[in-house]
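Need the bound structure for flavin-adenine dinucleotide, inputs here:
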Amino acid sequence: MKSAEYIANLWRSTRSTLFRRLFLDRQAEFWVREIDPVHTLTGIRAQVVDVIAETDDTKSFVLRPNAAWRGHRAGQSTLVEVEIDGVRVHRFYSISSAPGQALISITVKRVPGGRVSSWLHQHVGVGHVVGLGPASGDFVLPTPISARLLLLSGGSGITPVMSMLRDLAARSAIEDVAFVHYARTRADVIFGDELEDLAARHAGLRLIVCVDDDDDAPRGFDEAHLAALVPDFAERSTFLCGPGALMDRVEKLWADVGASHHLQRERFVAAPLFTPLVASGEGVDVRLSRSQRRVVTRGAGTLLEQLEGAGERPANGCRMGICRTCTCLKHSGTVENLVTGEVSSEPDQEIQLCISVPRSDLELDL
Ligand SMILES: Cc1cc2nc3c(=O)[nH]c(=O)nc-3n(C[C@H](O)[C@H](O)[C@H](O)COP(=O)(O)OP(=O)(O)OC[C@H]3O[C@@H](n4cnc5c(N)ncnc54)[C@H](O)[C@@H]3O)c2cc1C
Ligand code: FES
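Answer from helper R.:
Posting the output first, comments after.
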């Protein structure tokens, strides 16, 4: 009896301590943010200190992160959190600046109709505060740095490899670097002036910019052409980031010459390995058990896109099956995973909304 009373008292005191702790922590967090919006007791936040228009549709946001930021390795990305119409939304962005500096930058291309990139372009200026995740990803230069490197990028895919180049330059470690970049026009080349400047100052950097609107410059990607420009490409430690079509062709070329083991790559947009077994597009009845709502989703996109199309705002980050932010419990129904091809029909299975398509009516824990 005594021990039951003791346990009950212990639980009561632990519970009240926990509630007090939680309440005080929240209060402290509130006041810390009121005094200085970049400081927080619980996460990484950063203030925008400069916005640089790189091209017509690309801006760099220079950020001053708080003390919770632990730095990054060249090539890594961070999960940026912004609040749009009262909803927290996340997207990954590569860090385009070199490591080891107090300020970091992300460089964002505005995707037509894109929710976060458009919002950043239209609404975020100097003084704004955004949330960040810790730097992550294994798209990084090897240690020690390989003597012969090929940095290969297209469009906004230049951002992680630019961080690598800036890092190498800061460490005076540009020994034999071929930097090949593809853009539609000369005006679309992000960091164009800085690249020219680096090439002029570093004898070990060979800069090849391919654009479609300049007769004096090489044009868009072509296998034979790349092999002519960089004859030893298959022996170079290569870092690739760009649009899906460019990446697919480069991956195939490297595979054909047996050099895939030299190729590191970063994709901004997932390449689904499987196409859905049944054509989506018909209405799917989705019951959301937590919010007690019911929506009919339509369209050929992922479950995440379909729910967003129906006005829902499920948590998400990378939108390509990496970060698991969108993982949710499926109570009933069938979905197909676009990356693995697995079909989940069992009740109460975890699914990732961003890489799943519905194959029946569903009940989700949302
Ligand atoms: C690891 C990683 C690093 C990244 N780094 C960068 C970076 O440095 N700079 C940058 O600009 N973006 C980067 N991205 C892409 C970024 O996370 C967003 O996907 C992009 O900004 C679009 O988001 P959105 O909310 O504007 O568009 P959404 O509203 O999410 O998408 C709208 C439509 O655009 C399509 N779409 C999404 N991204 C692209 C794209 N890049 N090109 C063409 N179509 C697209 C979607 O499939 C969708 O149909 C990175 C992504 C990952 C996973
Ligand atoms: S949003 Fe990152 S795994 Fe789905």
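Comments: The chain has four domains: 1-31, 44-132, 148-266, 284-364. The chain is about 25% helix and 30% strand.
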